[in-house]
């Protein structure tokens, strides 16, 4: 849970005060009762096949983060050796094209 440190009431309040919905994974921490209730809630959701809109948004967010991580780690997005906005954008777009081609090849094989 990389977002566990962000699951704090002040952070949730700040996000809501800006008119946004926080998309932060819940962290029961060391509260045993909260952990038991969290696990029971997960079982009830699975039994009823219930998915909250926040869960869908969280999955979409993690998908985007995985793409960003691959762009940085595998396709040159971390180090850009050119100057200027247009050149940097071109460098990143070549990385996006290569990432898309790689993903398509993974789907068809």
Please provide a written account of the structure:
The protein has a domain at 4-79. With 109 residues, the chain is mostly helical. The protein has helices at residues 9-17, 32-48, 53-74, 85-108. It has four helices and no strands.
Overall spatial form: extended
Number of strands: 0
Q: Which regions are unreliable across 5 or more consecutive residues at pLDDT < 50?
A: none
The largest pleated sheet is described as: none
Radius of gyration: 19 Å
One letter per element, helices H and strands E, the order comes to HHHH
Present the secondary structure layout.
Blueprint: H1 9-17, H2 32-48, H3 53-74, H4 85-108
Helix pairs in contact: 3-4
Keywords:
mainly alpha, extended
Quick overview of this protein structure:
This protein has helices spanning 9-17, 32-48, 53-74, 85-108. With 109 residues, it is an all-alpha fold.
